[in-house]
Amino acid sequence: MASALSALPWLVALSRHKNWTFAISGVLIAAGFVNVYYIAPQLRKQECSPENPEACETTSRLSRFLLWISAAIYVAGFFVAFLLGLILARLDRA
Question: 20 to 30 A from 56, CA-CA: which of 41, 48, 75, 88?
Fold first, then answer.
């Protein structure tokens, strides 16, 4: 852990402001879901090239895949940062 913090010192600042970090990240991921599942399909109908209609679908699949991976990483990080300590504290008391 010490070598990771010496190589990446900005992690200390992020850990001190984890509430803001997770709040802003959650809002951005939620905005990504709105964009991928609501806004982009409406725009795709208007802007996709008739010569290559698969290009939009390929890009859309990749965007959805990366968005879901980001959401999974966010949920795992949220669990470790906020919930795991509470769970372990309760188990230690029992």
Answer: 75
Render pLDDT for 16-39 as a digit per residue (tens, 0 to 9): 899 999 999 999 999 999 999 998
- Give yes or no for a contact between 60 and 39, defined as CB atoms under 8 angstroms apart: no
Residues 6+ apart with CB under 8 A from 74: 22, 25, 26, 29
Q: What is the pTM of this model?
A: 0.78
- Inter-axis angle of helices 54-78 and 40-47, to 10 degrees? 160
CB atoms within 10 A of CB 48: 16
Rounded Cα–Cα distance for residues 37 and 71 (Å): 14
DSSP 48: S
- In whole angstroms, how far apart are CA 33 and each of 29, 54, 80, 81? 6, 21, 23, 23
* Measured distance CA(33)–CA(27) in Å, rounded: 10
